[in-house]
Fold this sequence. Notes:
By secondary structure, the chain is mainly β.
Amino acid sequence: MRVVKILTGCLILLISYASQMPGAQTVTLAWDSILQPGLAGYRVHWGTASGDYTQTTDVGNTTRTVISNLTDGTTNFFAVTAYNTAGVESLPSNEVSYPSRSHLANISTRMNVGVNENVLIGGFIVSGSQPKQLIVRAVGPSLTAAGVTGAMANPMLELHDSTGALIASNDNWQTGGQVSQISASGLAPSNALESAIIATLPSGNYTAIVRGVNSTTGIALVEVYELDSTTTRLMNVSARGQVGVNDAVLIGGFIVNGAQPKQLIVRAIGPSLTAAGVAGALANPMLELHDSTGALIASNDNWQTGGQASQISASGLAPSNPQESAIMATIPPGNYTAIVKGVNNTTGVGMVEVYDLDP
């Protein structure tokens, strides 16, 4: 029986699932008891929208209950509160859902990092009612061991919010006051000259910028890893930078986590960056989508060709320039790579974007 463990401020909520009959679900919830004087019992709250609990049941002073007759195929969201003998109720525990919605996780982008507008700029959106804890890394020297030539010797990392304000920065992950947290995460960079930031972020738009110390250049990687399992998720990820040839093409990686397929659109943007004031934009980008084995799932050069033009237009996310590329796909959980390169080995500033099309 699969169990998902969610750490909360006051409770640990576990969820397991068993289908009871066609068209219905039964969900078993369990949580750690609270050792607090005056505790009288617990209430379970649930509904079909995150944070909007339309149903409640009082389970008394027990730490396990079964919720039955849930509509099969519908995601429900659950939280638990505790109350004391005076009737005072706690805040809800962290939320869990079932079936768990698939989501984008552990995103990364590799490219040749230059200076000024040609630094590596990775964007992502945090969506949901709870903050999301993440680690962001800037990797350079350790790419050499992976066979990458021209790796950046000393990358530094900045994390900005939607206003452009600097949230945090780091040069060399073993400095900056987060060494113990980064080590404990199991995701510490393998080279002391690489950078990392742990942050707990509310819903919103964020940008991670990687540049070389003292304006040095080279191939670098920016990565964003989830450190929690809340229903708040990453979505609409992007990266912009100088697109070269061979090892210096733009490589965007992402993981689809969960139990269900994920519908998304991947875009390769170039010419329209000029209107945004970016100099040296890639004139004609092409796009490839690969699975974890490296097998090609789909490719596109010019989004109005390739048989998906009507679907892409209907999504509301069609690129603004016909020379730009897009792929729509519904993919199972797993690891994926989007590669952006210039047609006929042309170079310039390009952008890769992955949009979550599911609600």
